[in-house]
Amino acid sequence: MPWILAWQVASLVVGSSILLAGPVDTVLRLLALLGEKSFLATVGFSLARIALGFLLAFALAVVLALAGHRHPLVDRLLSPGVSALKSVPIVCVIVLLLMWVGSRSVSAIAVFLAVFPAVYLSCREALLHVDPKVSQMLGVFGVAPVRRLLAHTWPQVLPYLVGTSRNVCGMAWKAGVAAELIGSPMGSIGERIYNSKLLLDTAELFAWTIVVVVMSWLCERAFVAVLARTGSWSQHLSLRVGRPRSACAQTGVRHQAGRQGQAASAGPTILLKDASVGYEGAVVASGLNLAVLPGDRVLLADRSGTGKTTLLHTVAGLQDVLAGLCRRPAQPTMAFQESRLVEEMSAVQNVLLVMGSAREEAACARVRSLLSELLPEAALDVPVRRLSGGQRRRVEVVRALVAPGDAVLLDEPFSSLDAASHAQAAEFVTRHLDGRALVVASHLPDDMRLLDATSFSLKNGG
């Protein structure tokens, strides 16, 4: 209200409606515009082209950013062009477009060129901050790329895109109306603004400016509201598409010469021969010899720092063996030392994500039944970020046992559980192992008894 009052006072001081129309004259002219038969057609003409340019730019920018993140060559090819678009004055681009495509299409293209760089750069930056540990976990479970994108990547990228959209929606209307103002296509808002200038009708100029501001605000609110909802939509959709890859796709052997896949043969599910494990050439444990047959249960009970987690990561295929031979399971499942859950999904959804489709009622019922063995019913359908550390740990244990595979790898699976929950979870593991190989890293003294496992020492190599 103070700004409107200051506007009215300034209009009275100037004393000329041509130089500065007051708020009263502007509102009266706006009401007159709203009563015109051509008003909706004029707004619709501009809206259609601006929306088309915006949506095309947004969609293509996201797709190319995803492609550039996956294939750095794509990003290197696009970066110079994106930098140029970000720096070139939009007015110069509009003039060129008028000569190339004519006035009726220029606004859509101008909006596209104005919006694309901002969305592309925002999405590219967001992809750099997607939690790599959860992505790694989904890879171990063999979750298909499309399912990873919908369940994990898109919800993490979304806040960046929502923030960017609050700016580029207004930018789109500015670029679109500027293009129309220069090209003056018949029936557009830009043409009406241009005519107002020719007729020195400042009140109508202000009235159309208000229309543009309101349309920009409405478009921003509508688009951001829909965009923000796509996070939950994509996670629900992820359970209906892209089943986890079959176990045969994961078969392979890793040895000193590098990653040389070979079909798994009859014999041990996991085999180490004179193997050395570590990171980037730094050996953590060496001379390891281990054969784990289907149904075997092995406990790694050495002290911290001896390489238990490193060994499990090597067996899971997350890093190469530094020396010797390591035959991995065809399809491992794993509970990592730290929590690796999709935070906005429920316990049921986190398990379904790695093992089946939410459309299969039998699979969903089975998952709920298994989770209920370790968790209260109230914990099954809320986002896992709301669960306690012990409850989250039990979700990960259930996920590792329910997911399809031929070997279960558990890294400190009971570390955050009390004695009763610990015994209950260990009994759950043994009951649902179903003849698979089991390798567990744990410091807890009772785990060998609870799991009926044999001990393997990394310090002694066997």
TrEMBL record:
InterPro entries linked to this entry: AAA+_ATPase, ABC_transporter-like_ATP-bd, ABC_transporter-like_CS, MetI-like, MetI-like_sf, P-loop_NTPase
Protein location: Cell membrane
Molecular functions (GO terms): ATP binding; ATP hydrolysis activity
Bilayer topology term: Multi-pass membrane protein
Spans traversing the lipid bilayer: 45-66, 78-100, 106-123
Domain named ABC transporter: residues: 270-461
SMART domains (alphabetical): AAA
Gene3D superfamilies linked: MetI-like, P-loop containing nucleotide triphosphate hydrolases
PROSITE patterns reported in the protein's UniProt record: ABC_TM1, ABC_TRANSPORTER_1, ABC_TRANSPORTER_2
Domain of life: Bacteria
Pfam families assigned to the protein according to its UniProt record, in alphabetical order: ABC_tran, BPD_transp_1
Family annotation (PANTHER family): ABC TRANSPORTER PERMEASE PROTEIN MJ0413-RELATED, ALKANE SULFONATE ABC TRANSPORTER-RELATED, MEMBRANE SUBUNIT
Protein name: NitT/TauT family transport system permease protein
Taxonomic lineage from the root: Bacteria, Bacillati, Actinomycetota, Coriobacteriia, Coriobacteriales
